[in-house]
Structures
1.
Amino acid sequence: MTRQMTGAKMVVQALREQGVEVVFGYPGGAVLPIYDEIFQQNDIRHILVRHEQGAIHAAEGYARATGKPGVVLVTSGPGATNVVTGIVDALMDSIPIVVLSGQVPTFMIGSDAFQEGDTVGITRPCTKMNWLVKETDKLAETIHQAFHVATAGRPGPVLVDIPKDVQFATGTYVEKPKARTDHYAPRVKGDIEAITRMVEMIETAERPVFYTGGGVINSGPAASQLLREFVEATGFPVTSTLMGLGAYPASGKSWLGMLGMHGTYQANWVMHDCDVMLNIGARFDDRITGRINAFSPGSKKVHVDIDPSSINKVIRADVPIIGDVGHVLEDALKIWKARGRKVNREALARWWKQIDEWRAVDCLAYKPSATSIRPQHAVARLEALTKGMDRYITTEVGQHQMWAAQYLGFEDPNRWMTSGGLGTMGYGLPASIGVQIAHPQALVINVAGEASWLMNMQEMGTAIQYRAPVKQFILNNERLGMVRQWQELLHGERYSHSWSEALPDFVKLAEAFGCKGIRCDNEADLDDAIREMIAYDGPVIFDCLVEKHENCFPMIPSGNAHNQMLLGEAETQGVIGASGAVLV
Amino acid sequence: MSPLQIKQGSSKHSAYDLRDPNAELIETHTLAVIVDNESGVLARVIGLFSARGYNIDSLTVAEVDHLGHRSRITVVTSGTPQVIIQIKAQLERMVIVHAVHDLTVEGPSVQRELALFKVRGKGEARIEALRLAEIFRANVVDSTLESFVFEMTGTPEKVDAFAELMRPLGLVEVARTGVAALARGA
């Protein structure tokens, strides 16, 4: 049976067939036919944002909290260019996102028409794939292919640009099972020979470590389960990148905390001194490795990644395994069990003794403040008072993000959404809305800094409109904290443009939006204030006035090695050399 | 040059692979990239090279299979062994790319380039140009009383050599297609 329908109807039908429940978007001239179709149905919910960047970050939050692709609908020209930051963000963090953008009619393309932009040209380098659909007959199949590409292999953003005349014209709808998708089929099963070599290394390792990343989360909850089983069965220590938090529970006894530039003392020492490094779905990002030629000098490295281009990109892998984390872990576990579940117990006991000495340094300790609130304390109290709740955390970018990663404990995957690779300020508020739309009953908190938060604060309007009770927990130091920290360490304490002289009154701002505002400026009142935030049935803007010049530690200064961490203020004099200063 | 002075990495035709994957040695590789013939595909491939700072020494592209909707991009690139591996991995993961063949490592290959040379001259220089063209098996495809246009096919090295010889004889313009390459054998 061939089904004839307009392009606009096809869009909605294809989304329905793909199981899409929510679309984040903003209408405009070039997508009006699609919006007209959205108006005439009830299967797909449309969330109207206040700025297209908000739409794509909300879709990212939605995608990461559900494991399903996030869908964005925007108009041509400025609508499309406003989502570019989010597209790059999704590419860097491997988030499945499908962007549908309107375009001027095909006969006007190239004429500098009103709201015309070369959307496929602009987004070509920052999508996994993009399409300009010039015939209505190809529209449905292209959308199905777009969903396939976004979710298959290493997930990422895709974009389908749909000219307005293609939306109006009638064509044949192609159903999902009939869409041609076989040309893109990334390999998911790892090479058994390589996996066997990995198992051999596990059996004999004296100082092993699981170094896990976002790939474990992206592989699905089963991969996290397998990782947990593997870690428990071997008794190996485990650390994670920023993107992988929650794959292994923070309460687990093998947990070392996050690694990298602001990772824990024990995690970074373990990475430096290990003899077998098991990289499971991480990509040796520069925040992780520090100085490349001093990175874990004595270890043999196994690298499991679904993307072949991640292998040997930064760090040479002794045993590269290309495949999906879940599949590889399943095979590895099976082989390891079949070979008799061997590990080097004596050596492992010595390794843990050493690790316990590093843990005893207690690198995340901080002193309480009598005059204001230590930001670390604010996050630690947030953790204590929300522990065990059905909780999702998003963040903006900067010091608060690192403190959130250090002081919050994540017990499950898909509970933590932060902009890792791109470091997009303004990510957290819209992302929190996307998460809340996916999980209406859950407690969704955006741990924010006031500067990042202001970048997309217009989205509070979206939160109010859709009754998304997101909690905006703003650590307000009236500074661009991380910029200020680097200026202190690197630029002779010349604080060039790193503070805001005209901040809004956040409580009044909350009232202006029509939600609740809470301010807290001392540690004595903090717990009650946080409880009040949690208890309030609606969005809250929490203005937490914290210590203005607090620095984030531990810190591996740029250009240094894992065993050259700074633990506190006393160690910060002249720590970054000229070669480190050019790094970011 | 004695065999003992062979530099590592310079031995692409040797039976022994002497290349050290960690060496900071620049190698030149010819890649054949089979892609979907659709709009924007060349921009996608070139964009990858510019975005990641890879070199393009030569590039040709044309549809080679009309029914199968396939084009072949032949790209000559240079970089350290690690960079070359990375280029191939980055190309292979692109949705529009069907296959990447590294003709430099996959065995012997034939590499050819077509070039046109405009040479202006009179008298002895003009005769000398014609004589050299004959040696290089270049054809005269256009002639006036004061100029020739020569057409020549060959390896890039041969094209370079011919251009060098024509320069003092009045070479005014060169057009080259870039390298097209195929693996030898069946």
2.
Amino acid sequence: MAAPRSPLDRTHPGLIAATAVVYLFLLGPLVIVFGAAFSNTTFLAFPPQGLSLRWFENAFANSAFRASFVTSMQVAFGGTGLALLLGVPAAYAMSRYRVQLPKALSVMFVLPILIPEIVAGFSMLRFLQVSLGLPVVAALLLGHALLVLPYTVRVIGASLAAFDFSAEEAAISLGSPPLKTFVTIVLPNIRSGVIAAFVLAFITSLNDVSISVFLTGPGVSTLPIQILSYVEQFFDPTVASVSVLLMVLTVAVMAAVERTLGLTTFTK
Amino acid sequence: MTQSLALDHVTAHYGTTRVLEDLSIRIAAGELVSLLGASGCGKTTTLRLVAGFMTPTEGTIRLGERDLTRLPAHRRDIGLVFQNYALFPHLSVADNVGFGLRQRGVAPDERGRRVAAMLERVGLAALADRYPAALSGGQKQRVALARALVIEPQLLMFDEPLSNLDAKLRVDMRVEIRELQRANGATAVYVTHDQEEAFSISDRVAIMDAGRIVQLDTPETLYQRPNSEFVARFVGFENMIPLAVTRREAGVAIAEGAEGTRLALPEAEFGRVPDRFVLGARPAGLAVTDADAPLGIPATLGLRTYLGRAYQYQCRTPGGALVADGPLDRPLETGQAARLVPLAQQCCILPDAGRR
Amino acid sequence: MRRLTPWLLLAPGLLLVVVVLLAPVLNTGVMPFASGRAASLYQRFFFGSYNQGVILRTLQVASVTTLVSLALGFTAAYVVSRAPAALKSLLIVAAVFPLLTGTVVRSFAWMVILGRNGMANDALLKLGLTSEPVQLLYTQFAVVVGLVYLFTPLMILSLVGVLENIDTDLPRAAASLGAPPRAVFRQVVLPLATPGLIVGSVLVFTGSFTAFATPQLLGGEEQTVLATLLYQKAMVTLDWNGASTIASAMVVMTVIVVLLMNRLARRLNPASV
């Protein structure tokens, strides 16, 4: 239902044109990566002179890419799962017992955002791998869990803020034990928040460079780091096709979420 | 310089939905007219059209000699008081009030004087440097009022200005608004859904329904002589009794309705009674009398509630449920038979149009 | 027991933050001091001419990136916030999508565009602006373009939120008081959006100040910034004392910028006091 437009609501055509240019700038490069992925030339050029799938074949044939994809998946699922396992109770505690907890506590959960990732990555390398002697995959898992913890706490916290805890009290007063109450009453009501947190965290972890670049070691790499080192050595469209596969994966995850929740989840 | 406002055959749409239909109204210079109705009746749309936040699909809006219909909002010279006050949160009270003067290019010292004088008038001189976030609801309301008044607009408009205040403050503020409007001499349009508020403050009230004005009259006329069942219900005529005149003798119309209902209506008291009509009656307009009285509406008394000034009875009658007041000195029992007799002061004669 | 419940729920999360972040970072912070050469390390970091160049370049890149994405982001956000609902959600999704694509992929896209045989050079040659391919990649320009590309969506999204939070009655009130559209924008919309502009700028500044993948891919060695210098020292030359010094300095500089900007935002927004 659009209101009849008055001069107040009219947007200057110059601004609209400028916005169109901004969006072209935002989306154009992604289109170009697609074009390069399907090209048949050995150097990176756009528009492609001919179409082929050779770079996709090249990507799939590359065992380093395959291995790093598996590592990325393990780390993203594991790290996100761990972050949810720790983040849900923390978010619940902070919403439910707000008054009893010191305010400064929330800073702890913002810290991973506040401290530059590159610094965190370097420090983790020294502390977790060198000092504590953790294996590469374990360090990666912990590092990624920490990286995405703020997202889980914040998104689920926002969900909980909209939840009326008197429903939980009502359930307990009707004889339901606390843990069961959480599972049967609270969790269903913050379901969309948990899913959104998962997706956001998963994608963040999947794309991480700054922490992973320090924690990956010889033979164990995540996909973005593998792409990074490949690009530094070879300048051919293989990476474009890997990028396309990554984008397709992202779109698939987003589409799945759109189906269940609607995309507005991300802008809240 | 105050001006009259005229809307002629105005029609407006939201998308494809028509929200205002061929609406015409004339408001005299210096007059305060309320637009009264439930939400969605078109009262706020009317205000938005006059303010210039919407353009009508048909019709014209004139303020004095000026045609406002397509004029941008900022050139209309209308003082508008918003429901949520719409104070600029980043400006102090003084700067909020001075905003309109600044747009008009009034020099800073002159502006300062006029703002100070206006704040004095609304009793906020001490709060000039505060920011809106630090004000109470009533204070915000006064700032909004001062901001609209200080530009000495040709037209003042109020969009449910008191709906966010508590009951006591609402009564105080409406007196204040009326006094300021009188002193200012500005023509004013006042939008509200509160009947008491509209009646207490206005020279005339336009009752709106479904994008049309159903009656525009003084509060007294509306209260005593509504012209339709819709308006009658709006002003408290809860009982609607369809009747037909069977006999007229010596200035008294004898009217009959549902089984056993027979009333004598002196035209000197009730006014001219048409052959078929609906008698609108407030609860206080139906007196509860003995069952063996010769005239009246036969009724069985239901639940009795105590109102302080009277007892009120939910009555079952052959024509349907009615609400009537009975005397305080003689409470009657549930289930008792009675007759209900109309009292002219609390009744009105309505056309039968809607009921067929 | 009841008083302990919240702490028991928080403990695992807090433990993760302490063990995986706080302790390592503090450990990094004390490392230059533990080495007993803190003074000389910091002196070398802040006054060595090569490092000074890197610090200045990093600040410059971050500032320019912030200003450009502010201009692009605010323009787009203003238009998006006023668009009809259906178009608005489409535009928001279009801004979210690049955000969900990784920094490596997005920087790589610009390698394709800015490379010797890339689109940019192609266009320049065709337009006759140059007779042979120009070096675009591995320049400061490339780094800024890549970072602007990275952060503009973030700016758009945070500013759309800010602009949508402005009560629609406020521009109306201003217009009814006689303010023409330009004055409504300058005197009402802009001041109310300013705190949001600052918050967005902090995000972009700190993000581009510490960005790694983009300068690594688009800047190369010629355009070393603090993040890539830290990486080189840590992983290539294995100068961990030097790397720790850079890391500590980056944390301090980031925190200072965040605090200063937050303070500015609060001062510009008396309404929230």
3.
Amino acid sequence: MSLSQFIPFLPEIFLAVAGFTLLLAGISLGKRGARTLSLLAVGSLAVSAVLIWAVGRPAGGPHTILGGMLFVDTFAVYFKLLTMTASGIVLLMSAGYLERSEYSPGEFDALILFATLGMMIMASGANLVSLYVGLELMALSQYVLVGYFKLELKSNEGAVKYFVLGALSSGILVYGISLIYGALGTLDLGEIRAALTVTHTANWTLNLGIILVGFGMLFKVAAVPFHVWTPDAYEGAPTPVTAFISVGPKAAAFAMFLRLFLGAFHPELAQWRIVMWVAAAATVIYGNIAALTQDNVKRMLAYSSIAHAGYALIGIVAGTVMGLWSVMVYMLIYTFMNLGAFGFVIMLETRGYAGELVSDYAGLAKRHPGVAAGMLIFMLSLAGIPPTAGFMGKLYVFSSAVEAGYVWLAVIAVIMSAVSLYYYFRIVVEMYLKDGEADEPAALVQDRWLDAMIGVCVFVTLAIGVYPAPVVGIAQSGMHALGLG
Amino acid sequence: MIGAMHYVILSLILFVLGVIGLMVRRNFITVLMSLELIFNAANLNLIAFSDRLGNLSGQIMAIFIITVAAAEAAIGLGLIIALERLKRTVNLDDANEMRG
């Protein structure tokens, strides 16, 4: 292994160094430096993105580096840039929020960078060792971020619950990995795929291993029946953290999911497909039904994110080329629409946990028509109504299921999307048709950065909804890396 | 003669014990011990297979798992200390602010 193999890894190395630097800068700048620090963090993400463009591209076709540990391919670049963009938006959204809070911003920004580093490794891992280490780097940073408001009981409780179940899921995942290693004698994704293509012996340790790895991944994407941590972690976490864990880590977990199940384990499709079918159907049904009765907006969005994980799982059940790129497109669309919706939750949250109830949105359209209109766009998109991006995302995923012959799954998902209209429109009804209560709620947070980021999300949500072809093209170029089709 | 299957059965027992412990026990420290049981079940598998297969990558994976499990335990203890300061408890059932 020559030193030149490290060159495509430079974006990750830079981000790690930047994270440690931010920790030190956070100590010297203190609380007043919230905006400077998040600008520094976003700056390092931008430099890292430029480095990906400069040295991290698969110039000579897809290949692996560092002794077969990491892929350099367009699939990795797609998910790396997606998760980095999500982290950048969260960092800019959270600067004002952290300024208003009593907690120091340095560690927050550094932890987001470390989690992003983990997600980048998950997007490019070519070996179960590197995938596991990337996953844990992301997960450990997330546990701390959820418990970041350490003097708030809710934040703490959310973190402890998330930790216990998250660690259990990692345990299940590594146990599955150990069984796969025992059956095939390798941890390399390419070799696993090759071994599975050749041998067709019924081997219970191998099948159990694949199913356990699947359970671990279903935990990470918050699919039923492994979703129990989600509502508590989402509600308890500081809102920018909720926004963060609902998008970036979910996209990275789906990247790893696709690498494993549509890449390495694809020859065993017939064995694991039924498990994913049941999980996808249960997730879509349970997520949407449970969201109906939620009065807390963060909790409602938590169940909504469970439902969206279910929609994306449908693409994995399809197991086809279209299933693959439709999941990639769906994750991008979901990232922007969900971040936008959480941006408005941050805006309404003037202090502590106030402004989180659905009833807090009453009469918003009269007082702040712009805010209400923006929220309306994200609610339409999450519900999947044209001409927003959410509609296109669902269209692709559902048609991939129909194309693969899973019509019933698509039918369940469409019916449940109709159910989801009810809870998304509860907020719309509150905003447009109800009058605010007699006591005027506290003024909205004035934060230009937050406004700008929401603006970006509105733009992307509408642009992809009207003209999705470029994104689909990029995703389709990424899928070739996995050797499908 | 002890074969690879003996190790798998032993590790499966450890794994199931760990999962049951994690679900049934409500004391956070016991939960952390159950977690270690799960991780070490996987380690036992990896090392036994590595020995049988004459292939080192399983042992490398085990070293990474030990390292990550240590970091995980450190974070878990940190979280429970924060909870203990607020609520004077390490029992998970007492942390039940949020419902639904």
